[in-house]
Amino acid sequence: MNYKLSIFLLMTALAAGAQMASHAPGSTQPAQPAASSPASFQVSDKPVAKVNGAVLTDRDLLREMLTIFPYAGQHNGFPKAQEASIRQGALEMIIFEELVYQEAGRRKLTVSPERISRAEAEFRKQFHSPDQYQQYMQMEMHGSHQLLRKRIERSLLIEQVLKTEVEDKSAVSLDKNPARFEKAESFDFQSISILPPQKPTADAISKNRKRAEEAQRQAQATKSYQEFGLLAEKISEDDFRVNMGDHRSIGRDKLPPQFVKAALAMQAGQVSGVIQIENAFTIFRLNAHNPPQKQTLAAVKNDVRTELQKSKYERLRSNLAKSLRAKAKIEIV
Asked: What does the pLDDT read at residue 16?
């Protein structure tokens, strides 16, 4: 439960939305076509779903959307290409949390006042100033300290059920399968991409190549991860632009041969030429080439345990969600 983070994101987004909405009609603020309108940040507490009669609102939905995509405040909204999937994922999550909360009630679970007070004290430490805390109280809690404690209690009850049904059951033991200790060859890189035109005529593709060549010229002038990343955020058209163009580490077998050929001839920190993959054009900065290697159990056991535990955790959580949904009445408003 990332309760603290989602609250701060919601506060930031609502504040940004209010500021943007206050711009005069003649404002010279630049348009951001790659992201949805700041109206995405505006909430009216209207229902978005009902779970066994309990109402979930657009405020709950936005908070979860910002947890899934925390960059929205920096990018003037959610990327258009991703907003529907982000919204759907957030809707599924708030429904799941409500189902878990109701299950806690059926089990007659409780949280002591002392534990709520300790959690509240920890929660208040996350605010940078008393004014920020008061802003949150007015915006989210309508000035009600009782409501705040109720929200904290809800979060703790959800955590209790998840601990019992998922976390405690997700412990794993390590096997000695050698394949688990082999680390495949991979590349760490950032990209700037010019996506295929809607109508891939020869003229349209030629124009995109010229744009890519200009982007490559600018990319060659960058001197660091940060500079390339800021350029990617500005001109790239793929979804990675919202994260400095960073793909992190990708296995060689998952990359197109044109990319691999170029990457193998480069040193870390170098920028590629323009690479055409079908009707798209890409420029990338190689941050690292990680050759294949075998590791000892001692070196990888923590990572392997985390991987296995995460997989088991997700499977158990999915099974819990299916079980709770099977006996629930859920309405999407």
From this structure: 46
